[in-house]
Amino acid sequence: MQTAIFTLCDAATVAGGKLNILGSFDTIGAHSFPCDHPLCAVACKLRFDVGEEGRHWIEMHFCDPDMRPVLKPIRQDFEIRIPGHQSQTHIHVWQHLGFHLERPGEYYFELKVDGDTKSRIPLYVVQAQRR
Q: Which residues of the chain have pLDDT under 50?
């Protein structure tokens, strides 16, 4: 299994088997803390090879700079069927209606498949300068 895409973005959709990503980012600036980020999505695309068919589960974690959970882990079960001798993709989008950020620092989104960490991406939360 390979992680083809794992990104934080403004929005993401799946249509006709295609993953559409709008505004991929890794930094948020806020004038004061604590603060709330109103809306975002996390998009992922996994590629499974022949021999990796069957039931799997995917889990996404969001942790603060001290690796404490910011959001409750989100889990989804799915099944991979591989027709012929080709690899197969699984696409998933998590839409978040917002989250609370206590302080600046390096936060993390972590992707686990079947309990194993497959990718970790940072979210840099910085103090924005007033103009």
A: none
